[in-house]
Amino acid sequence: MRDLKEIREEINEIDEKLIELFKRRMECAKDVGNYKKANNIPILNQDRENEILDDVLVRGGEYGYAAQLLFSNIMELSRALQHNIVGSGKEMKELIENSSPNIPYNKNTKVACQGIAGANNHEATLKIFPDCEPQFCKSFKDVFMAIENGEADYGVLPVENSTAGSVSDVYDLILKHRFYIIKSLDLPIHYYLASIPQANLEDIEEVWSHPQALAQCSDKITANNYKTLQSANTAVAARDVANSKRINLAAVCNGSAVKEYGLKVLAENYENRSDNTTRFIVISKKLYIPENAEKISLCFGLPHVTGTLYSVLCRFSSLGLNLTKIESRTMANKPFEYLFYLDFTGNVKNDEVTKLLCALSTELPEFSFLGNYEEDFA
Ligand SMILES: C=C(O[C@@H]1C=C(C(=O)O)C=C[C@H]1O)C(=O)O
């Protein structure tokens, strides 16, 4: 067996050559970039890349697939360099440069949220925009429509719960409308089991609430064998239980709904997990990027090329930006074709990040930059 020190010396020698060859290849890519700029030729040439990858697979022998992975990354970097030279994604750059850092707000600002008084959405809205009179909408879709029609300046929406997971309907609407996300808030959510004042815990047979709340409280609901019924939201459940006058009925709702609809608390902290938290976002037609923005959201479709998602993720991680969320949703009318929604840590004030977004905006189908915003914790 060879001595470790000796093997490492050989590796060092090889690496020295590899880095020189890599630099030479990047210089060629630079020349190609200048040629493409002068002749107005697109950066990506998929046929040429496929040819190289096919060749590498064969030549790589037992390391063929590993060699393909290496080369697809090298070509990704080569294209990134060329995008820089050509100045791709001008619109993206202008969009970011023209965004304002301050989110305008006073008590007449129109903020839309789904539900009725006392719903979690209402609570989140008041935390983000204190003193506002929310415009209550029937559905999440109506919140998006209110922004679309200019009836509201901002919309507050739940996107994810720590126990029950993503609110998929909201992600579908984000991908459809592509408004900007300008803020997020993580709100701890605690639930009560609440009934009309005449009822007692032993009387309860049936529980009403929003499906997300029923999922977040599923442990106790299942243990008690309660029948469940889905409501439009937790506050609607509270209101309907109050109006029903039935003593065998309870709602799973928050403290504001208990007060709002004069219910009696039968049990507190009804959620499965004491750290139950829901993440809300604020959407807007106009882009605002606060100075201390720390989260970047974007979405795109994937071209039918092996490894694209992987190479996109690599590009972010090479800048030290971490992926914190990924959602894939099927495209409308295109079964088994997906749109991806992603969150990364980072701020577009970093020039390299803007360059990356500019490059991706020209390379990926259906690409949208959805925002760069602060994450608040209540
Ligand atoms: C360098 C070029 O641009 C891109 C990058 C490639 C590479 O790094 O080998 C190949 C094809 C193009 O997608 C080129 O067109 O040759």
UniProtKB/TrEMBL annotation:
Gene Ontology terms describing biological process: chorismate metabolic process; L-phenylalanine biosynthetic process
Occurrences of domain Prephenate dehydratase (ranges): 110-285
This protein's GO CC annotations: cytoplasm
InterPro entries named in the record: ACT-like_dom_sf, ACT_dom, Chor_mutase/pphenate_deHydtase, Chorismate_II_sf, Chorismate_mutase_GmP, CM_dom_sf, CM_II_prokaryot, Preph_deHydtase
Reactions this protein catalyses: prephenate + H(+) = 3-phenylpyruvate + CO2 + H2O; chorismate = prephenate
E.C. number(s) listed in UniProt: 4.2.1.51
UniProt-listed Pfam families: CM_2, PDT
CDD domains in alphabetical order: ACT_CM-PDT, PBP2_Ct-PDT_like
Organism domain of life: Bacteria
Domain ACT span(s) in chain numbering: 297-374
Keywords: Amino-acid biosynthesis, Aromatic amino acid biosynthesis, Cytoplasm, Isomerase, Lyase, Multifunctional enzyme, Phenylalanine biosynthesis
Location of the protein in the cell: Cytoplasm
Chorismate mutase domain location: 1-86
Pathway terms, separated by semicolons: Amino-acid biosynthesis; L-phenylalanine biosynthesis; phenylpyruvate from prephenate: step 1/1; Metabolic intermediate biosynthesis; prephenate biosynthesis; prephenate from chorismate: step 1/1
GO molecular function, one term: chorismate mutase activity
Site (described: Essential for prephenate dehydratase activity): 278
Keyword Glycoprotein: no
Principal EC category: lyase
NCBIfam families named among the record's database cross-references: CM_mono_grmpos
Biological role stated in the UniProt entry: Catalyzes the Claisen rearrangement of chorismate to prephenate and the decarboxylation/dehydration of prephenate to phenylpyruvate.
Name recorded for this polypeptide: Bifunctional chorismate mutase/prephenate dehydratase
Species of origin: Ruminococcus bovis
